[in-house]
Amino acid sequence: MAGSTPASLTAEPGAAVQAAAPRFSPALDAWRRFRRHRMAVGSTVILSIMALAVIVGPFLWPVAINEIDFSAMLQPPSAAHPFGTDDLGQDLLARMLYGGRISLSVGLAAMMVSIVVGTLIGSIAGISRGSVDAALMWLTDLFLSLPQLPLLLLLIYLFRDTLKGLLGPEGGIFVMIVAVIGGFRWMPVARLVRAQFLSLREKEFVEAARALGASTPRQVVRHILPNALGPVIVAGTINVADAIIAESTLSFLGLGFPPDTPTWGRILFDAKDTLDTSPHWALIAGAAIFLAVLTINFIGDGLRDVLDPRRVL
Amino acid sequence: MGRYLLRRLLIAVPSLLGISVVLFTVLALAPGDPFGELASNPAVPPEVRLALRAKFGMDDPIYFRYVHWLTAMLHGDWGFSFVSRVDVDRLILQRLPATLLVIGSSQILALMIALPVGVIAATRPYSIFDQIANTFAFIGFSLPTFFTGLLFILLFSIHLHWLPFVFNSELNATGWRWYWEEFRQSIMPVAVLGMFQGASWTRYVRSAVLDVIRLDYVTTARAKGLREGKVVVKHVVRNALIPVVTLVALQMPAIFGGAIITEQIFRVPGIGSLLITSILANDTPVIMGVTFVFACLVVLFNMIADILYGWLDPRIAYR
Questions:
Q1: Is the ipTM of this complex over 0.90?
Q2: Could you say which of A207, A241, B11, B234 is the most buried, measured as most Cβ atoms within 10 Å of its Cβ?
Q3: Measured between CA atoms, how close is B303 to chain A, in angstroms?
């Protein structure tokens, strides 16, 4: 506002007060509100530590994930093996770190898929009226009433071998799982985006843009979409947690990644047969999944307080 | 109410058709040829293979195949299991009661947790009780069902020896003893599923009650001199339940997913474990049948939710 004429005399002292007050920006305000949510802040710290551990951990703990040592089978945690060993004497810490990379990246990638698809469908439905909107919402409702886990299992059963041939055993399963999990999680996002669009497109600032001659794509991309993203980010956070659970579920049912790839769910699946003699194996894998999902849910809750204007809690 | 019911039934038909189209498309797009093995078999001449393909309608246009498949499904001709040589519909009917029992009782348990806890938490927002309930709800729906199941087995079966960890479908007991054994072995699957659902419903109930409890008509009810308990139960909860029913209906697919995992962990002989075993055994007709039954169940429960909705909020039914 430098150089502008003050509207009235009283604006002068007001400006002085404003200069003395701490600087205000939406990001700063959001951070201030997020900070009030203690669980969310604590969760961010824990999740960051976990993410850092799986990213740099394999460099700091350079034990092979598939080094079989029959002299050290099913050992409880010790100095040589901080998380113990599994039934083939493989080091669990190394396997957990490697598995965490897969589990967390599946979660993130599936979230991206669901957000992109959901935002696309929601925006198209929200901006176009009439039959397109009705058809897309019918599709959304249809997907919402599909039994997801059975279909997930069916799709993986039917297409597993083809994709394995195309992209290799690990890459193929990764693409498949991300696409399928993401493909079943976009509906809430689409509904949220559509609801936001319906109200935003009638707002004055959009009308102003329209009056200035902005094309529909420009109105959507520059004016409506940025304002509709708050709830989407919240839904996306929750989707990461859902996707991690979905991936672990598939691996736990023996239908996810190939047996020699240790994702957290797979480790839990392998561990369940020796639950009575060496519970540490299952407990460590389960605790990792639980901790990741819990912290992400708490962060999502904190973000909802910050970003979602229609928050209910 | 009758017309409303009829309309709900008619709405269910297109969604069932849509689901069947999705299922059929998945099946038709799937790589692999049922007669692929014959192609590499030198004893089978190519003409025979082509004749077989023509006989089974493999070369027909896709919409024709869809109509054919749908009429067969509607006639109850679901094919037979490759593994056990039993008709698919008989196999599923055998397994369905166990699944419905586990799901049904776990839903009741979830409601018994979620309703009181959610209502009490919302009537005293931000109190100690509310905060504890909120934390437990978060823990509850962040614990994946397969991990809770293993924890329960570890605690109650292995360490305490209280409960059997494998579901036995052929109990050799009669009368009250049979019911008692059945009850004992159902506790863990039902509790795992019920607690997971109950945790997320608690939050729904809490936020729905919070939305309603500040409305003017609730103040009016209090001002009339009604007791607080009556105000909450008769005035608040009934209206708060309307959005909860919607959310519960939306969660139905997830509930069936949870049931599949629980059945697998505790070896409950339901259609969920049937699905897993048939996937591991490449038993395509059973996989298709079970998936379709799951889809029908989801639509059915959505319909029940719609009917409940009409009962809770008469404005919807008479519009």
A1: no
A2: A241
A3: 11
Cα–Cα dist A307/A305, whole Å? 6
A42-54 residue pLDDT tens: 888 888 888 888 8
Best of B13, B146, B248, B252 to disrupt the A interface by mutation (most A CBs within 10 Å)?
B146
**Helix (H) / strand (E) containing B130:** helix B128-142
CA distance B175 to chain A (A): 33
Amino acid letter at B262? T
Ramachandran quadrant class, A69 (left: phi over 0; alpha: psi -120 to 50; beta: rest): beta
* CB neighbour list of residue A231: distance below 8 Å, 6 or more residues apart: A192, A196, A307, A308, A310
Across the interface, do B146 and A313 touch by the CB < 8 Å criterion?
no
CB proximity B74 to A under 8 Å: no
Q: Which distant-in-sequence residues (6+ apart) come within 8 Å of A303 by Cβ?
A: A34, A40, A233, A234, A237
pLDDT one-digit tens code per residue, B162-189: 777 666 666 666 777 777 777 777 888 8
Sorted by sequence, the CB contacts under 8 Å of residue A292 that are 6+ apart come out as A47, A50, A100, A103, A104, A107, A241, A244
Say if CB A127 and CB A202 are below 8 A apart: no
